[in-house]
Structure formats: C-alpha cells, structure tokens
Amino acid sequence: MQTPGSKMADGIQTAGLIILAGGRSRRMGRDKALLPLAGEMMVMRMIRRLSLQGEWVVMVSSNQPEKFAELGVPVVPDQFLGGGPLAGIHACLQRSPCELNLVTACDLPFVSGEVARQLLALAGTGTWDVVVPADGKRVHPLFGVYHRRCRRRLESFLEGGGRRVGDFLKEVNTRYVSGPFPDGVFFNMNRPEDYCRATAMEEGEPEGG
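That's the Probable molybdenum cofactor guanylyltransferase sequence above. Prediction below.
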C-alpha cells in the first residue's frame, strides 16, 4: 500500500476509503455489509470496485469489529454512539492519515471507481470541505469526498445533537456535483426487494464500474 503522501496512478493523492458498515439494517432484516452478491460479500465488493486503480487507505466504520476481522483493514468504532452515519464519518476522519477521504455506504452495489476518482479530482482542486454528487432527484451525501479538516466541525455538530447529514452539509463548504453519472450507480439496497433487484441487475452488469 502506498504512503498517504504518494500518488495514485492518475495523479490523485492517495485517499482514504471509508466504508460505513455500522447501520442496523432493520429494513433489510440482515446485515447489509455482509450480504453476498455474485458470490462476494458486499463490503469486499465495495473495496474491489472502488480500488480498480491506485491504492487507498481503507477503513470500515463499525462498532462490531469481529464481523470484519478477515478483511485485514482497520475497523473503527464510533465515538458518538447513536450518532448515525455522521458518527462513523467522524470516527474514521479522526483515524485517517489522508486529507481527502471517499465516504461510501455499504449498500451501494454498483458504485463506480470512475465517479469516485472524478469526485476526488474535483475535491483536490478547490477549498471544499465536502464534495457530493447530486443527480437532479436527490443529493447522495453517503457517496462523497470529505476533507479531514471536517472532523472538528463534525465533532462540534455531533456534540450539539446534530444527526442529519444534510444539515451538516449546510454548515461546511460543500460542492454539489451534477454529473452526468452512470445509470444505477447510486442504487442502494434498503429492503429485501432491493436486494432481489440488485441480484437481477448484476446479471447484466459489466465488470469494472
């Protein structure tokens, strides 16, 4: 693995890859991070699809490290219990040695390494704290680039009782990127029927993202 100051193949500084895997998966009824898709556990699928070029400093956000012991990557627990995905982002930003960190939820089966690199490249050219995609219908804050300096603002936000990601984005310098993006790249699996749909979609999904 490259050091935090080295370069990816496309010239981007090595970045952190933060996979949010601490959700309760109540609507799914099963741990989404451990769901198999095409014979591959979702969290491993995320790492593979997002690491097609270059190297990342990979971290998994979870309060149950035993579930991910075989991954061989740091599993980072929340410091703000009950803080939702922002607590996971905060804890991993505290741990990350990288200035730029791609944050992704663990239930996005068709994440794109190309979109990730586009967001990272944009984040590296400005003074934005967060760079997130917005596809015209909605913003996708759980697939975006968060600068490490966000951790202090995020800590204050959580200490003040803040929990909504959208509210936090209003408090920092956020860049919204309109795309265009590949079809299905932000499809997420919340319910069993979404999982079934993802399995069906996978049959026609080309390798590479």
